[in-house]
Amino acid sequence: MADSVDVLSTLKLVYTIYALAVISLIAWYAYRITQQGEVKPAKKAIFWTYVTVLITMGTGLHFLTFNLVPWVPMDLDRANIKSEKTFKITYKDHVITLDEKPMRVPCNKYVIFDAYSEDLTYGFGIFRQDHSLVTQMQVVPGNGNDLMWKFGKNGTYYIRSTEYSGPKGAQMIVQDAVIVSGCQEDDTKSMKKGI
Amino acid sequence: MSFLNKLLDGHEGGLKHEGMTPMQKIAMRFVVIGLLYYGLAALEGMIMRMYEIKPLPFIDESHFFSIMTVHPMVGIFGSSYMIVFGAFLFLTPFLMKKPIYSIKMANQSWMFIGGGTLIMWLAGFLFSYAPLYTLYWPLPADTEQFTAIGGIVYIVGVVGIMIGTFLYTYNVFKTIVYTPPGWEKQPAGELLKSALGITGLMNFFRKKDTEHLVPLPIAAIARGTIDVGLNAIVISTAGVLILIYLVANGLFSADMQGTWVDALLYKNIFWWGLDLVADGLVLVFVAGTWYLLAMMISGKDLYMQNVARAALFLEMVVSWTVWSHHLMSDQGQSNTLKVLSGEVVTAFELVTQGIAVFIVLTTLYKAKPIKMTNELKFLLGGILGFMLAVPAGIIQADLGMNRVLHNTQWIIGNHVHVAILVGLTMTLYSAIYVLFPILTNGVKLYSQKLANAHFWLHLVGGIGMGAFMGMAGIDGMLRRTIYYNGEYNTYMILAGLCGAMMLLAFVLFLYNIIMSIGLKGLLGIYQPSPMDTHECIAEAKDK
After folding, report:
1. Could you say which of A8, A143, A171 has the minimum Cβ distance to residue B263?
2. Quick one: A19 and A87 in the same domain?
3. Distance from the A97 Cα atom to the nearest Cα atom in chain B, whole angstroms
4. CATH number, domain containing residue A104
5. What does R_g of chain A's alpha carbons equal in angstroms?
6. What's the confidence (pLDDT) of residue B282?
7. What is the pLDDT of residue B534?
């Protein structure tokens, strides 16, 4: 099962290739436009093919991620999926309080992180030990904020508010907040001894 | 000629402000203040870049976030709005071949926006007011973290900016439709329909096309200006709400509960309005400016002009319906809105902007060989900026990607800063280089070498900074956060170096412009013009 490391590594590679390609294209165009040469009338068929490609790329990305990124269908259908466990998290006065600490998550089971803010808008983010992001949601006061997730690797994760809530909220971190166990594979970027 | 003489009098005599028309002076007033605010925003950006490498001892956390709060406001309203409004208040009457509706209102516009930006900035500088530009409810009304007076000063400044914006909006539309005194009656309704794109839309259903009464750039200006006006209404409404809470709770110790306002509904309305700037007028104005620049540089008609008009109309409608891509990590937001507004409609920004890129590049190509002038190279830089930034935005407006990219440095680096600093700003520089001889009655540029250095430093610095911030974001670095242990220092040092390149680029540009027009000419811009705009138009018509 793909996790955020796989998805983000792919993004880094694909976007870098894309960026280098368009920079090269504009550089080539900038050179060509200053050169003498015959200019053929632009065919409208090329234009409409190009527009079709844009529409396909713009919307196709979403079909791709729906089928390849496991948390997309899970998120859209979370109301109909039975979760193994729900963890309650409360935000108040720039403090994150966990009903259960650490939150022990069984491997490959659906769990829900149910966060509630009593004052400001915060964020709920789960991070690996190398600070890469596993997942996140906004925590909006007066509203339900439930994130369904399934972990496929063993690891110890910290949580951090991912939304700005004033200068006092800049360092809202709870170390070792989530511990996943029972998997056949370890999350090499998030293993911690002694937990 | 000594350095001092050149600094005072400018290059080859510099700017003779006595010969400038009122419209030239007004446009220059907007642009000069806009450039000064750009410098301030660049300086603030550089301070934050250094802070992200190692927190600076003389700036505490509260003040760091107040810089972060005013930085985008100064950049967008103080700089981009000013430069764009100045150019469009000049171009609208210029292209419509009639005098501007009100010079007085145009002057009030830059005074309100410039003054409002200063007041808003002071709220951060003096009172460390720091709810960020997002103003997520109820943070801006939080009197425990911020002083009420700081918030009130901030809102007063924002209100000033919005008043100036309303004046600009009214002036532009009135200029398009009004009949100047002594002129033959203008078809106001038809002009308005043409400007808004209704004529073009109706043409799809008619056997015989109705002629467009306004040129294409005016259509872009009008459609973008609709978004400007709507955005000003939303921001003003949010400002009034915040002001009521700050005055009641902060000054009169009332107990108005933050929960009286639904935070998610507020967020929806606020982002709907804010996205009219981010995804509406920026893309519409930029496309319109590209079209105008392409025609001016190439001397050719625009390729597929009807499609360009339709795409501008589509972009305006898209800009009204895309806001939900900012709420894809909000679990209370409905899935339908996330998918339709957040993903599908947003994807059409790739289409509309892609069409603009194709049309502009084809129009220019038809005129080859073209000399690589300053305006052309900056235009190509601007196009490249959007070719990089728009797909980055489409990627983050995806349910799968947003879960791991939202609020990271990817958003603010690859998408926002590349779009604004490379895409928008380089387009504006291109427009400035085109308008410079027109607005200054042919003042020669002091140094082409400095212009070249400005171009390369800005382009490489802008793309580089965005790229390194984006890579840090992919590795988990959040925006709006301070890292004290050097977790992302490699990326942050590289991004800082690129930021320094852009700051240097701006210093070189400003020096070049000042040495070209001279300080006397610069100050003269703010003196009244002895000419009458109506007479200038009459003279131009006679010619």
Report:
1. A143
2. no
3. 20
4. 2.60.40.420
5. 23
6. 79
7. 62
The model's pLDDT over B376-391, given as tens digits with 9 standing for 90+, comes to 999 999 999 999 999 9
Task: Express each pLDDT in B205-223 by its tens digit.
Answer: 777 777 888 998 999 999 8
Are residues A120 and A62 part of one domain? Answer: no
Domain check: are A65 and A89 in the same one?
no
d(CA A149, CA A1): 13
Cα B60 to Cα B42: distance, rounded to the nearest angstrom: 20
Instruction: State which residue of chain B sits closest to A2, comparing Cα positions.
Output: B400
The interface pTM score, or ipTM, of the predicted complex is 0.96
Domains and CATH numbers, chain B: 3-542 (1.20.210.10)
DSSP B488: T
HEC states along B311-374? HHHHHHHHHHCCHHHHHCCCCCCCHHHHHHHHHHHHHHHHHHHHHHHHHHHHHHHCCCCCCCCH
User: Closest Cα of chain A to B208: distance in Å?
Assistant: 22
Residue A168 lies in a domain: yes
* pLDDT tens-digit readout, B300-354: 999 988 888 888 888 888 888 999 999 999 999 999 999 999 999 999 999 999 9
Alpha helices (H) along A81-146: none
Please name which of B281, B277, B270, B279 lies closest in space to residue B330, comparing C-alpha atoms. B270
Interface residue A194 vs chain B (CB under 8 A): no
Residue A190 lies in a domain: no
Domain that holds residue A161: 83-181
3-state DSSP assignment of residue B494: helix
Tell me the percentage of chain B whose pLDDT exceeds 70: 98
Domain annotation covers residue A172:
yes
**Partner residues linked to A89 by β-bridges:** A98, A115
Residues A95 and A144 in one domain: yes
- How far is CA B203 from each of CA A47, B189, B208, rounded to the nearest angstrom? 21, 16, 7
Nearest to B407 by CA among A8, A28, A133: A133
